[in-house]
Amino acid sequence: MGRPRSRQTRALPEHLYHDVKKGFRFTLVNGRRVSLGHSRQEAIAIALEYNHRMRGSSRYGLEDLVALSGSEKLRSFGDYVPELLAKILAREEPKSSKRSTLESDAKRAVTFFDNVAPLDIELTHVNDYLSEFHKGASANVYNRKIAWLEKLFGYACDAGIMRDNPASQKMKFPKKAPKMRRRLTEEDFLAIYDSAEPWLQVAMDLSLQTGTARLETVRISYNLERPQKGVCGCMWYKRPQNGVYGKLFIHRQKTENNEASWVAIPLGGRLKAIIDRSVDDVDSPYVVHRPTGTSSNKVSQNVEHPTQVNPEYLSKAFSAVRDELGLYAELPARERPSFHEIRALSAKLHEQTGVSPQKLLTHQKRSTTEIYIRGHGGWTEVEHMEVEVTLDSLCETENEQFIPYSHCKKNHT
Questions:
Q1: Which pairing describes strands 23-27 and 33-35: parallel, antiparallel, or unpaired?
Q2: What domain range is 385 assigned to?
Q3: Any idea what the Cα angle at residue 365 is, between residues 361 and 368, rounded to 5°?
Q4: Number of domains in the chain
Q5: Residues 123 and 190 in one domain
Q6: Given a cut of 60, is residue 392 above it in pLDDT?
Q7: How confident is residue 278, by pLDDT bands cut at 50, 70 and 90?
Q8: Chain-wide mean pLDDT for the chain?
Q9: What pTM, to 2 d.p., does this model score?
Q10: Phi, psi dihedrals of residue 122, rounded to the nearest 5°
Q11: Is the pLDDT score of 120 beyond 70?
């Protein structure tokens, strides 16, 4: 009987020993002693497998475990991804756009981790994943994809599929101050307006008067049956009340979960004139519309009617006119004012009237509104004052009488 093993080597497999200078040493069945390197984990794994095959150890080997699992191969991490995605979607309930991004990321993960066991995933896999799918991406996108893997592995750890989260070890790019686009001046707004097609002029007018972003602008319908989530449109009084013809209800998508995202804008003379001017031979329920049969009107996630303008196309059309006129040509494309800058110009013009545009822009904080107002150049000293526009609450519409918009050739109900 050999001498008892020391406390330091008692946890090692039989015939495996550790030498401080030479590392792990292992004795073969023929008595020869070999080195298994300095990695404790690798040495133990090799010794266990060798003892199982050559000495008939009672321990299970890899093949035994596979056979006992009743499957030809152990489940890869890619096999678990659909289950983990389902948990993410159920728990976090993301918006449709975010949901689509998560689903796309999950497809990549299924492909990449198809033959990788969950417990084998290391930081090198994270690096290879980012290199394969997001090489050359911006710092912002790169950081978001690291966050995605961190989220995915976090759910896997929570489910007991993984022991640790290697994505949490990956360094992200430092956050940089966002580059603000050049503000759109009144002069340049008018120059673009004069060269724009009639439908684009209507969109520009609506955004300037109401402070709506591109998505809300193309969603505005002639007739709204009732105020509701995710819908923008007009409700008209039977007869004008003090120069107001009805209400324009806007539900801001970007802040849709905040109370401030609901806004009812009085339909005064200017707004009514814009809407009246939008009426043409195109039979459309939307104020901003184009003839059917164009790629910009293809029914999709953000386009519900063949005549409704895609918000992406709205931005491209505005930028195309801007560039044709040579405005801001000295700036990189990403710094030139886009259609969204009309929203900032609207904030500035409303502020100059002495009325805070905070509610109009659906901002919860005054500090957010000030970001839109800043950057128009020059210093204007005004008296200190704070005023708000009082908008009727949505519930009060139940006691008001509305009629369909009937000023166009066809009644768009």
A1: antiparallel
A2: 186-403
A3: 65
A4: 3
A5: no
A6: no
A7: very high
A8: 77
A9: 0.52
A10: -130, 180
A11: yes
